[in-house]
Design brief:
Blueprint lengths: L1 H17 L8 E3 L5 E6 L4 E6 L6 H8 L2 H14 L7 E6 L5 E6 L4 E2 H8 L5 H23 L2 E2 L8 E6 L2 E6 L6 E2 L5 H11 L9 H13 L6 H21 L4
Antiparallel strand pairs: 1-2, 2-3, 3-5, 4-5, 6-8, 7-10, 8-9
Length: about 250
């Protein structure tokens, strides 16, 4: 009965959270214009309302499944392959074609946070830890791609890292656009690598990026050395062009 009452309470909160109205215990989290996200630290829960991106959103939902349904499906599929993702515990519909869901918080901070807050020192211990993060991140993303998955938005903040037991453990969030392929098209691998490269020169040196790439490459035996190098160079150059267009370096 307690679990049922908790579920009912979650559904009662949803309309207010979706409108960013104050609900005790919840705090709003920065998100894109097509979603509204809140976090409850005591319950370790995230709320996410999916806002329609266009008038065609409902039609696409009929054909491919809604964004919320795809997120739940992909979270579960990734976990079956051994990748950590949020666990979705409740969901429902709101007015105007919107949907929402509640998910458990997975441990860790985004890779961007680690690079800009935790591992900025120049002491040998900090540099070793940073290199370990990049190597283990490369192995993780390589395993993801080798398993056939492409993340829809593999920006570093969507990969959470937790240091435990002398190693980094990773989790993937925002999985609504993740896809699985028997053989991943090169353009999708390129896009994922570009998204991970959307970091400033102050975040990562070229050598740092190469450490990540070498670890990623070892998980991708299906690629020739030339193919892998072309992907690495093109991903880096594409990311640099995008950063420069935003006035960033």
């Amino acid at each position: 009965m307690a679990a049922e009452q908790e579920s009912q309470q979650l559904h009662r909160w949803a309309p207010d959270l979706a409108e960013a109205r104050h609900v005790p215990g919840w705090r709003e989290v920065d998100s894109s214009g097509t979603a509204r996200v809140a976090f409850h630290p005591d319950h370790h829960l995230y709320f996410k309302a999916f806002m329609p991106r266009s008038p065609w959103e409902r039609v696409k939902g009929w054909l491919r499944g809604t964004r919320a349904a795809r997120a739940r499906t992909h979270n579960e599929q990734l976990r079956k392959y051994g990748f950590e993702t949020p666990r979705d515990i409740a969901w429902g519909r709101l007015t105007h074609g919107r949907e929402y869901q509640y998910s458990t918080a997975v441990p860790g901070d985004g890779v961007t946070h680690w690079l800009r807050r935790e591992l900025t020192g120049r002491e040998p211990a900090d540099l070793l830890m940073k290199r370990r993060l990049l190597r283990e991140l490369g192995r993780f993303v390589g395993r993801l791609h080798h398993a056939g998955f492409v993340h829809g938005d593999l920006r570093p903040s969507n990969v959470l890292a937790q240091y435990s037991g002398e190693r980094f453990n990773f989790a993937l969030i925002d999985n609504e656009r993740t896809s699985w392929h028997r053989q991943i098209p090169g353009k999708l691998l390129l896009k994922n690598l570009m998204q991970l490269n959307m970091l400033l020169s102050s975040d990562l040196t070229v050598t740092d990026r190469w450490r990540f790439f070498q670890a990623w490459r070892r998980q991708m035996p299906e690629l020739s050395e030339l193919e892998a190098r072309v992907l690495a160079v093109e991903a880096y150059q594409w990311a640099r062009r995008r950063l420069q267009a935003k006035g960033l370096k």
